[in-house]
Structures are given as C-alpha cells and as structure tokens.
From TrEMBL:
GO molecular function: phosphorelay sensor kinase activity
Coiled-coil features, chain-numbered ranges: none
Record-linked InterPro entries: HATPase_C_sf, HATPase_dom, His_kinase_dom, HisK_dim/P_dom, HisK_dim/P_sf, Sensor_HK_Regulatory, Sig_transdc_His_kin-like_C
Keywords linked to the UniProt accession: Kinase, Membrane, Phosphoprotein, Plasmid, Transferase, Transmembrane, Transmembrane helix, Two-component regulatory system
The keyword DNA repair is assigned to this record: no
Gene that specifies this protein: senX3
Segments traversing the membrane: 7-29, 174-196
Protein name: histidine kinase
Group of enzyme by EC: transferase
Length: 455
C-alpha cells in the first residue's frame, strides 16, 4: 500500500512539474509575441508616407501655379518635383506597393506617376504666364491629391481597425499570461504543499520506525532481562528442592527451615516481578485510576519507612518533615505509597548499608515535595534522560535485581496523581528523587496531568 501511494505521489508530482513547465513556456511565448506585436507600426508608417506624398503633390501644384501667376516668384519647382517623384517611388515599391494594392490605388498611383513624368520637361521649363501647361499639370495632380487623401482616410480607418484588433489580441494574450501565472502559482503551491506533506509523512514514518525500533529493542531487552530474573530464582528453588530430595530425613530441621526461607524469598521475588510486569500492562491499558481522598502525610511517610525497614532492617532511614508542611494532602494514598515505596526501595538497594537514606518532606507553591536521598552509586548525566523509560536500567545497576520498570511505573503514577517525578543524580555521589504532588486534587495542574495520563 505504501509503495502504491509513493508511485501515485511521484506521478502527481511529475505531472504537476510538466504542467508547470508547459505553462511557463506558454506564458513566455505569449509575452514575446505580445512584445513583437506592440513593435509593429506598419500602419503608422504608411499613413505618414501617404500624407507626405499628398503634401508633396499639393506643394508642387501650388508652386507651379504661383510661378506662372507671379512674375517674381522664387518657387523651387524642380525640388518640389523631385520630392514628389521620390514619394511616389516610395509608394510603388516593396511592402508599400502591396499596402497600396490593398487600398486599391496601385494602378492609379502608377498611372499618375507616368503622367507626371510625361510633364517633366514642361514642369522644369515652365515660364511666366504659361497657364495652359499649369492647367494640364493641375489636371494630373488634382485627381492624385484627391486619391491620396482618400487613401489616407482608408489607411487611417484600417489602422484604427488594426489597432483595435491588436489591442484585443494583446488583451487576450495578457489575460492568458495572467491565467498561466496564476496556474503556475497554484501549481507551485500544490507542489510545495505536496513536498511538505511528503516530508512530514516521511518524518512521521521515520519517527514511527525509530519508535518501533526502540520498542522492539526495549522488549528484547525486557525479555532477556525477565528471562534472566526468572531463571535465577527458579534455579535457586530447584537447587534447594534437589538438596532436600537428596538429603531426605538426614537434613537437620534448621537447615530445612533455612532452605524453606530461601525458597520463600525467591518466590516472593518472582511474585514481585510478575506484579511489576502486570502493573506496566495495566497502566498502558488505562486500567489504573486514581481515587483521591484525604491523606495524612506523616502517616504515609512513616508507613513507607516501616515497610522498607521490615525488608531491610540493617539500613538506616531518616524522616524529616518541614514545619511548613500541612498535616494532610488530597491524593490517592495507595498510589502515592506505591511511588514512595519504589523510590525508597531503590535508594536502599543502591546504597551501602553504612549510608543512611533520607526522606525529606517540604511544601512549595501549593505542592508537597517528597524527596528521597541516598549516597549510592548515582547515575550519569547521559543516562538520566532515559531513566523513566520502560525496561531501562542504568549502567550502575549491574548486579542489582530488577527489570527496569519501577521508575517508569512511578513516573506514570505521579502523572496520574497530577504531580511529577524528578531526579538529580551524580555518578559515585548519590541521587535525589523528588515526588511533587499538589496539595489539593482539584488544582488545574492535577486535573490536566491526570487527563493526560488516562488519555
């Protein structure tokens, strides 16, 4: 399924990239085409050429008339004549001729040029009072001027139409470019979101994979540890029973009693291991709930101390309750006692018999702090972050019985009670584990922590 999703993601991303490239090329092409169309000014040039030709014809006609009518006229007839011919030649060649043909003037233009050239001698040798020649020239230039005027009008109308069509085309091109740009932006956003989702999904997958590896490794360690912890007491029990069977009635009652006590101790250890394992399962399944009530702090601490001294009478456990500590706290006494039992038991296990273990109770910020201090092996800074994880045992715990679930259970129970469990430790010096519980169960911190624990 994952492989199929990856293929679909690659196909979608590839299609989006191809569409992105196509739209970008199309937008650039339309922009270049629009820029080229904006540089086209053929209509403007032709309108200028036609108007200048008409102006040249008018000036020649006026110069001829003035030269014949005025005896002292200085009209430059030859220059006017040459200018008109050059204008007519310009309109009779190349693209200009095709443009004039479209206007329906190419034949008339050629005929007018021939007639004007036929009068070249009379025009250049014109004399004062020669009105007949002037009339003949005017008969040729008049229709030409009129047709050039009409051609100019038609060219202007044609230019307006072409300009309108060009503007419409440019507007359409600009709209297409804008649409392409918007589509490019949308595709870019889509690709970005797709890539971010893919990256997030990959990160989630990697985190999940790493988590699964950690869990698998934890369970492998747990299985190996539990197997070892179970085999050891079973081996002791089996050895004691074999000795009893071999010795039969010859074994002294005191020896039988000693071995029976040894078997009972090992059975008790097995029971504790099974109980801790079941506690982990119950906590993970959410079957453990808090039942808050009024708890006497001094009674709670003394009960924990007495229970531990009953198991390890050779150790010294000191209790200090600060003056500011109230006599009662609202919490689940059984769960709080279980946490403290675990902390005190660990402190005793990892401390020499000659070093006392202290339980100090203080009050701070509407919280009761139960601090358990020992002068044992301590824990390195690197391992303290993993200390409350399931089945984790510090390197300094080698040789000490346990499966690494006690502190994990204690931490989860502390959260269930709306509090927290903290550790300050230094390798080779000792550790201080502090259980912080709210004085009142109804405080916001207690409620939020309890909800997170049961979620």
């Amino acid at each position: 399924m994952t492989r199929r999703n990856d293929i679909i993601a690659y196909v979608v991303a590839g299609t989006a990239i191809v569409a992105f490239a196509i739209l970008l090329i199309f937008a650039l092409f339309r922009l270049a085409e629009t820029e080229a169309e904006m540089r086209e000014n053929e209509g403007d040039n032709m309108l200028w050429a036609i108007s200048r030709t008409q102006s040249a014809a008018l000036l020649l006609d006026a110069a001829v008339t003035r030269y014949v009518a005025l005896p002292q006229s200085t009209a430059d007839i030859e220059r006017r004549y040459n200018v008109l011919l050059s204008r007519l030649t310009l309109l009779s060649e190349g693209p200009q001729l095709r443009y004039m043909s479209d206007l329906g003037m190419s034949d008339n233009l050629a005929l007018a040029e021939q007639e004007i050239r036929a009068f070249e001698g009379e025009i250049l040798n014109l004399s004062f009072g020669n009105t007949g020649t002037v009339a003949a020239i005017h008969e040729v230039l008049g229709p030409l001027i009129q047709e050039l005027g009409q051609a100019g009008n038609r060219s202007m109308v044609r230019q307006w139409e072409a300009t309108g069509a060009r503007l419409d085309k440019q507007r359409q091109s600009i709209l297409q470019v804008i649409t392409s740009i918007l589509a490019i932006v949308a595709l870019g956003v889509f690709l970005s979101v797709t890539m971010l989702r893919a990256m997030a999904g990959r990160q989630r997958f990697l985190r999940s994979f790493e988590r699964e590896q950690e869990i698998a490794e934890a369970y492998r360690s747990f299985v190996a540890l539990v197997s070892h912890q179970f085999r050891t007491p079973l081996a002791v029990i089996d050895s004691a029973m074999q000795r009893l069977l071999r010795s039969g009635r010859t074994m002294k009652p005191t020896e039988i009693e000693r071995r029976a006590e040894q078997v009972r101790a090992e059975v008790g250890g097995l029971t504790d291991l099974i109980g801790a394992t079941l506690d982990v399962v119950r906590l993970e399944a959410g079957h453990v709930t808090a039942d808050p009530g009024v708890c006497n702090i001094e009674t709670l601490v003394n009960r924990v101390r007495a229970g531990q001294l009953a198991e390890t009478p050779g150790h010294v456990i000191k209790v200090q309750i600060a003056d500011e500590v109230p006599p009662f706290i609202e919490t689940d006494a059984l769960l709080a006692e279980q946490i403290l039992n675990n902390l005190v038991s660990n402190a005793v296990k990892y401390s020499p018999e000659t070093e006392p273990v202290s339980i100090r109770v203080s009050a701070l910020n509407r919280q009761i702090c139960f601090a358990v201090l020992d002068s044992g092996v301590g824990i390195s800074d690197e391992e303290q972050e993993k200390l409350f994880g399931r089945f984790y045992r510090a390197s300094t715990s080698e040789g000490v019985p346990g499966i690494g679930v006690g502190l994990s259970i204690a931490s989860q129970l502390a959260t269930l009670l709306g509090g927290e469990l903290e550790c300050i430790s230094h390798a080779g010096i000792g550790s201080t584990f502090t259980l912080k519980l709210p004085i009142d169960w109804g405080t916001p911190d207690a409620e939020s922590n309890a909800q997170r624990s049961t979620a």
